Amino acid sequence: MSLRSGWLDLRPPPVRRTIRFTSAPNSLQLYKFHVDFTTPANSTYTGPTNIPVAAFSPLCAGGTCVRQPSGNQLDSLADRLMYRLAYRNLGSHESLVVNHSVVSGTTGGVRWYEIQNPSGTPVVAQQSTFAPDASYRWMGSIAMDQAGGT
Known about the structure:
Blueprint (H helix, E strand, L loop, with lengths): L2 E5 L10 E7 L2 E8 L9 E9 L11 E4 L5 E3 L9 E5 L4 E11 L2 E10 L6 E8 L20
Parallel strand pairs: 1-7
Antiparallel strand pairs: 1-2, 2-3, 3-4, 5-6, 7-8, 8-9, 9-10
């Protein structure tokens, strides 16, 4: 399952295009889609570009295991990236931020990434897993402010 990017401000990408991400074992995959409505034959869809990330295991192997106080279990949704893949053009560089649910110890955490230079050779600028205690953390969301802070 892929996730389409969304702009966070009025500064669009240098070339009008859509970016899609999917997760794969221990990597992210970037796809680029450029639509030329004037000359459709000039439209392009390229990828994937494989972006290695720190090793992870999807929470509940992508299935159901998130315990609730009632005893019920919820679907981890770890088989997909979480909404939204946020794009920010900071002038000096472009960034994408995205997250998904992963195993952290005996529970779940939210793994997040900042990918810089998505128009060129993308690199992981920073990544981390948010899991401050033994509670399940999943279905996260991430954004970036206009100064580049997450």
